Amino acid sequence: MMKQIRLAAYAAAVFAVFFLMTGCGGKKPQDVISEELGINVSGGREVSNLDSHGGFHGDGTTCIVLQFSDERVLEQIKEDEQWKAFPLDEVTGTLVYGTERKAENETGNEKENRIESIGPFLTDGEGEALIPEIEDGYYRLIDRQVKPGEAAGADILHRSSFNFTLGIYDAGTGRLYFCKLDT
Fold it and tell me: Which of 15, 30, 62, 111 could form an SS bridge with 180, CB 3.0 to 4.6 Å?
C-alpha cells in the first residue's frame, strides 16, 4: 500500500512538472494574435516582442511584429471585411503616428496661432512611434472600450483612457504589427 502511495505521488509530481513546463507558459504570441485579429497567423515568424503590461491594473503597451514568407495572411485579410485598406483613417493615423494642426485661440483682441499636437499613442520608451511609416497595407482597429450603442472608435481620441487593439499588415514587407494599448 505504501509503495502505491509513493508511486502515485511520484506520478503526480512528474505530471505537475510536465504541466508547468508545457502549459504554464501561456499561449504563443501567434495564438493570441490569431484569436484577437480573427485571422490565422500561425505561420508568422516573430521578429520583435515588446510588452510593458504589468502592475496592479495591467496597463501598458504591447507590440509584436510577425514576418510572413508567403501571402496566405494577406489573402485572409483581403477576404475579411473588418480589415481596411490603407490609407489609415484619421483616428488610426493619430493613434499610430500622431497628428499636428494649426489651432487659433483668441486672447483679448489678439489672435494667437499655435500648433496643436496629438499622439502618437503607440510609442516606445523614448516616445517614438512603434510602427514605421507604411505606404501599402491593411489595418484593423478594435476598440475594446466602446459603449453599447456607440460607433467603435468614434470618441477614442477624446477619452481619459485607452483600451484598443490594432493590427497593421505591411503589404510591402510582409510584416504584421499587432499592438495593444491599455491605460
Answer: 62
Residue 43 near residue 61, CB atoms below 8 Å: no
Cell triple for residue 96?
499610430
Separation CA 85–CA 92 (nearest Å): 12
- DSSP letter for each residue of 86-150: SSPPHHHHHHHH-EEEEEEEEETTEEEEEEEEE---SB-TTS-BSS---SSEEEEEEETTPPTTS
Note the pLDDT tens digit of each residue in 100-112. 877 666 555 455 6
**CA-CA distance, 138 to 171, in Å (whole number)?**
8
- Total residue length of the chain: 183
Give burial (CB, 10 Å; 0-12/13-18/19+) of 155.
middle
pTM above 0.90, yes or no: no
CA separation (Å) from 8 to 5, 149, 171? 5, 56, 55
Q: Measured between alpha carbons, how far is 63 from 122 in angstroms, rounded to an integer? A: 8
C-alpha cell of 110? 489678439
Q: Is the dihedral of CA 28, 33, 38, 42 positive or negative?
A: negative
